[in-house]
Amino acid sequence: MEKKMLNSLQMLCIISLPLLVKGSKMKENVLIFFAKGVLALLVDAYVVGTKRIEYPIRPFPGIFKTNIIFDVLFFPLLSVIWVRRTYDDHLIKMVLKSCIFSVPMSCAQWYLEKNTKLFKWNQWSPLHTFVSVNFTLFTIRGLVGLLKLVGNKKKEAASEL
Asked: What is the dihedral of CA 124, 130, 132, 133, to 10 degrees?
């Protein structure tokens, strides 16, 4: 059952990928996607390396100790969606919208940990998931904010010439 779940998630992510990176902000969306993938891999490698979480069933178990479908497909796609939804929002709205993503994800991971072999939590809880998801969402959103600031300064400098 777990393999089918992972394969279904992988197919859903692959099908969704072209829909999320097209449009006027394609370069930014691709940057968000890859930055979140790198950040998710780093956080997950640390968490798995410290034996807080295990992934008993995962793709390429001989190569990766983390679940690369979550790290390089699912979480990056969710980040692209979240950044799109919060692009012009202020901090309060961003916090509320981040809860729309992190609370269900924390609950889903808790349920899956109890009922499947996708996760094994050793020193982990739904609160840890909530904090780590929000940390990575806001880190990526900070990167986007920085890119917007640099882009605006370039536009101002170009208009002064």
From this structure: 130
Calculate ∠ Cα 99-147-69, nearest 5°: 50
Q: What are the CB-based long-range contacts (under 8 Å, 24+) for 8-11?
A: 9/69, 9/73, 9/74, 10/59, 10/69, 10/73
The DSSP call for residue 119 is -
What's the half-sphere exposure (Cβ side, CA atoms, 13 Å) at 44? 20
Residue 7 pLDDT grade (very low, low, confident, very high; cuts 50, 70, 90): confident
Task: Please check the confidence at residue 38 and state whether its pLDDT lies above 90.
Answer: yes
Predicted model pTM: 0.86
Task: Report how far residue 117's alpha carbon sits from residue 119's, in angstroms, rounded to the nearest whole number.
Answer: 6
Distance of CA 76 to the CA centre of its chain: 4
Q: Tokens for 126, please give them.
A: 């739904």
Residue 26 to residues 20, 21, 75, 152: CA-CA distances in angstroms? 8, 5, 18, 18
CA 146 to chain CA mean position, Å:
19
